[in-house]
Design goal:
Elements (H helix, E strand, L loop, with lengths): L6 H6 E12 L2 E12 L14 H9 L6 E6 L2 E2 L6 H7 L13
Antiparallel strand pairs: 1-2, 1-3, 3-4
Length: 103
């Protein structure tokens, strides 16, 4: 896959996204997305409409499976944990998407 970190960095990553792609018919929503997040880090996902943010969140939550690549959370490949939107909600996962104003 396309992601590479040093051996120590990789072992300390809580979340690893490695070469994740997702297509809907002829539309590419995600193309070889790769990054890692260490425990305690805070990240934001921003971009214009249609950039694939929601699709990536759906991949991370297990609501959708990627067409290619791998997602590893706490050492476990999420393909083994994929449980659809209902399972993600039951496990307590939440995402706030498309917020148009701040309170």
């Amino acid at each position: 896959m396309g992601f590479s970190r040093g051996a120590n960095d990789m072992s300390e990553s809580l979340l690893i996204i490695d070469g994740v792609s997702r297509h809907f018919g002829g539309v590419t929503a995600l193309s070889e997305v790769s990054f890692a997040v260490a425990a305690g880090e805070v990240h934001a996902l921003i971009g214009p409409n249609g950039a694939g943010k929601t699709t990536l969140i759906h991949q991370l939550s297990g609501a959708q499976r990627p067409d290619a690549g791998r997602i590893v959370f706490a050492g476990e490949h999420t393909a083994r944990l994929a449980r659809g939107m209902e399972g993600a909600m039951e496990s307590g996962e939440r995402a706030a998407l498309q917020l148009m104003e701040l309170i």
